[in-house]
Amino acid sequence: MVLSCIHIFLIVCPLIIIVRILFLMFMKDKKTRAKELRETPAKTMIILGSGGHTAEMLRIVKLMDYEKYTPRIYVSASTDNISIDKVKDIEEMKNDYKIVRITRSREVGQSYISSVWTTLTATLEATSLLWSEKPELLLCNGPGTCVPLCIVAFVFKIFCALNVTTVFIESFCRVKTFSLTGIILYYFVDHIIVRWPFVNKSLYDKVYLS
User: Fold this and answer.
1) Rounded to two decimals, what is the model's pTM?
2) Which region holds residue 128: left if phi is over 0, alpha if psi is between -120 and 50, else beta?
């Protein structure tokens, strides 16, 4: 009897997890969720890339109603000091934000072999960060810094350990096709925002034109 219960448990649990994964990836009505209104501020995690990616993200941040998106947690690669300085410039005297640094999955020019270790380190740091901060909204626009965070957030959601809406904003320079980050995250994030109407029209079931 005990063995039968164990066998049933070992069969049913993986099936439940698989159904949950498929539900999050394909079946949930994301556009309906997008229309839900809330009356309280959303704890927002903003993932900064570097260079142009940071510039694009901070242009969006400047237009945000800070009273609705607070507190704000900015996440930057540990080697990206320029993005940190830009955040401090736009936040000025505000005190409802903080900056967190994590390891970048892969630096420019880094070998793929050595990036295995940095990606693992970034994933562990992302897991700890998301578990401790528990953001309600996660904004990102690439490049690789956001991938571990989005995937870890997805895993947490599988087990209902985190209630967070993830939004990937494709770079303005992607006129016809998704970036590699966009392709990787397509099935892991809740919403994707593109800037041009020609970007992969076949994927418009979960893609929004800004």
Assistant:
1) 0.82
2) alpha
